[in-house]
Specification:
Strand content: 25-35%
Structural class: alpha/beta
Distance between the termini: 10 Å
Shape: globular
Order of helices and strands: EHEEEHE
CATH topology: Signal recognition particle alu RNA binding heterodimer, srp9/1
CATH class: Alpha Beta
CATH architecture: 2-Layer Sandwich
Largest sheet: 5 strands, mixed
Number of domains: 1
Number of strands: 5
Length: 86
């Protein structure tokens, strides 16, 4: 099963614990991981202010557990959870 989480939930639960794969698009980043039960995705929209984007990368995407990827398999098959619970 695939689950879509918002940034706050994703960063608190998965960013430091798991290997995160990041796909950068023109207007967003897609962060993708697996917690042994679920495949979890988070979409982070880029800010219109480039400085904010640089700060996001420096603060969150510079960690050792981040792997930049060129594509994410099955990206179109994401199951969205409205209330953020899994």
């Amino acid at each position: 099963m695939k689950i879509d989480l918002d940034w706050n939930q994703f960063s608190q639960r998965y960013l430091l614990e798991n290997r995160i794969f990041v796909l950068e698009k023109d207007d967003s980043w897609i962060l993708y991981t697996n917690d042994e039960v679920f495949i979890v995705r988070c979409l982070v929209d880029k800010n219109a202010d480039h400085t904010e984007n640089v700060m996001f990368v420096e603060r969150y995407l510079s960690g050792r557990n981040i792997v930049k990827v060129d594509e994410i398999e099955g990206e179109e098959e994401i199951f969205e959870v409205e209330d953020g619970t899994a």
